[in-house]
Amino acid sequence: MNENIVKRNELWAQKVIKGLESRNMSGYYAASKEEALMKALELIPKGSSITMGGCMSAQEIGLVDAVKTPEYRFIDRYAAPDRQAAEREAYSADVYLASANAMTEDGVLVNIDGNANRVSAIAYGPKKVIFIVSMNKICIDVDSAMKRARNVAAPINAQRFGLATPCAKTGSCMNCKSPDTICCQFLITRYSKHPGRIHVILVNENLGF
């Protein structure tokens, strides 16, 4: 990455972190995937029960593989005999791993979900939520963050899941009511009632969607 972009992102991240702190959330800056992984593991005590939604960013930094060890209790919904039961375990988990479809430079997180298991767990339940968010997901305000979530993240995820949504065919949001739509629930996290619950690791690499 160009050194001027790196320097700009380092400075920008500090603004985002201050915004998060003003909202009772914790923010951290990681210059690389490796730094992001180290910071995430610092935030997860050994023996913790851990689960997640479909967080590509956590996978890309190696966090999922790192917690699928005997030192932790990873609740794997894909390996569980009852996927819905495993997803419900998220509400009593010690740690929930997540990313954001977009976030604002003053610390507001924006997420869109189809089944709502992910956004509901972010909003309530797990003792700690750790977000892995790449700097390319930072937007100026909530309106632009929502546009990114709907026009960048949603179409790519619809394509990834092989869904027959208009956005999967056009590449942008068509404000559909398709049976396959993944834009069912919108969560805007602007403040955390519980100090120490939400942690956001900003990563100076392109991750997820």
Shape: globular
Biggest sheet overview: 6 strands, parallel
Please, what is the average pLDDT?
96
What is the CATH topology assignment?
Rossmann fold
Beta-strand fraction estimate: 15-25%
Please indicate the count of domains: 1
Q: Specify the structural class.
A: alpha/beta
**How many strands in all?**
10
- Helix count, DSSP H or I runs of 4 or more residues: 8
What's the CATH architecture?
3-Layer(aba) Sandwich
Element-level helix/strand string: HEHEHHEHEEEHEEHHEE
C-alpha end-to-end distance: 18 Å
Give the helix level as a range of percent.
25-40%
- The stretches of 5 or more residues where confidence is low (pLDDT under 50) are none
Q: What would CATH call the class?
A: Alpha Beta
In spatial order, strands of the major sheet run 1-10-7-4-2-3
Round the Cα radius of gyration to an integer and report it: 16 Å
The CATH superfamily title = NagB/RpiA/CoA transferase-like
Structure description:
The chain has 209 residues and is α/β, with parallel strands linked by helices. The chain has a single domain, classed as NagB/RpiA/CoA transferase-like (Rossmann fold, 3-Layer(aba) Sandwich), CATH 3.40.50. Helices cover 37% and strands 21% of the residues. A six-stranded parallel β-sheet has the order 1-10-7-4-2-3. A four-stranded mixed β-sheet has the order 8-5-6-9, sandwiched between helices. The longest helix has 20 residues. The model has no long low-confidence stretch (mean pLDDT 96).
